[in-house]
Structure formats: structure tokens, C-alpha cells
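Quick check before the chapter quiz. The format below is the same one you will see on the exam, so make sure you can read both the input and the output lines.
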Amino acid sequence: MTTLAIGTPFGIAKAHVRQADDSRAALVLGHGAGGGVQAKDLVTVAGVAHSEGLTVALVEQPYRVAGRRSPAPAHQLDAAWVAVIEQLLAGELRGSPLLVGGRSSGARVACRTAETTGAAGVLCLAFPLQPPRREGAAPAPSRLAELDAVSVPMLVVQGTRDRFGIPPATKWRTVVEVAGDHSLRTDLDAIGEAVRAWLRRRL
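Here is the expected output.
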């Protein structure tokens, strides 16, 4: 594992890169809003992808590297993510077909920037589809449009009890439900199996 400090327009990000011998593709994953790259589902997916011959990069957003808990605004997250991927593609991931993804907030970033980064596929863990309604407040808007805007093959792995709901499958979008809530900690084996099957179809 190599850890790279990468400059972005909004501070230093870190990419933890695990190279594969004779790499078939690259998978770059982002973390959730309040968590880091040590989340169990991210670690599981990274391990599965590496075992399938992919070079994997886990990206820490600048706000996390700086020690802040509160996430940066969406435009800053997107810009930092794009900057990291551009630099990885110019270096460690040069020449590799690119898959992107992440958990929760990181999945949203990967979706919003998929066209910009030239991704050939998107992998979403616990996509936060519809924020839970707060008592006395109007319903928050759905984020389904962020998923629908992706025009490359996509896998969404969602807990059956996720309080953010479960998006519908489409021609492009495979949706796999596994036991658990938004944390996706209940059945890591099922997550790994879903990701392995999807990667084998993609590659």
C-alpha cells in the first residue's frame, strides 16, 4: 500500500493505493460524509477488487485529511475528487480502465463526476437516496437524479433497512439488497459477493 498526498483546489487529499500485478483496471473509492476510508464495507470492496486483479485507490477528501468532521460543500468535494483522479491517471493508474465509487456521500461524488472523470463504471455503497424526514419538516428532495445522470454501468449495494431507501434498478443500474442498514456492516460477505460478480461482468 502506497499513500500519496495530492494537492487539490481545496487542500491536500490522500490516496491509499494498492497496486495489482498486471492490473486489469483501477477502482477509486471515496468515503462517507462522517467516516473515513477504514469503513468496513469500503475495506471489503477494496479487498475483493484487488483479488480480482484491480489496482485500488481509497481517497480521503481534504476536509478529512485536515482533521475536520463536517464535510465540505458538494462542489468542493467534486472538485477535489476530480483533481485526485486526474493526478492518479497521470501516474499510478496510467493506462488503466477506470471504475469509480464510494459509500454514501462518496457514492454521490462518484456519480456527479462520472462523466468528467471518464469512468467506465460506478460502484455505489449505501447511496443516500432520500434523507429521512425530520419531524415537522417538509420531505427532503430525492437524489435519484444523481444516479439517473450516470450513463455507464452501475452497481448499487443497499441495506434492506437503509433509512435512506432503495433506488430502483434500470438498464444501466444493478441494485443488490443485502441485510443491514445504512452502515452496511451486517453482511460483508454478501457485499463482497455482489461486487465480485459485477466486476467479473464488467471486465
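If your answer matched, good. The longest strand covers residues 11-18.
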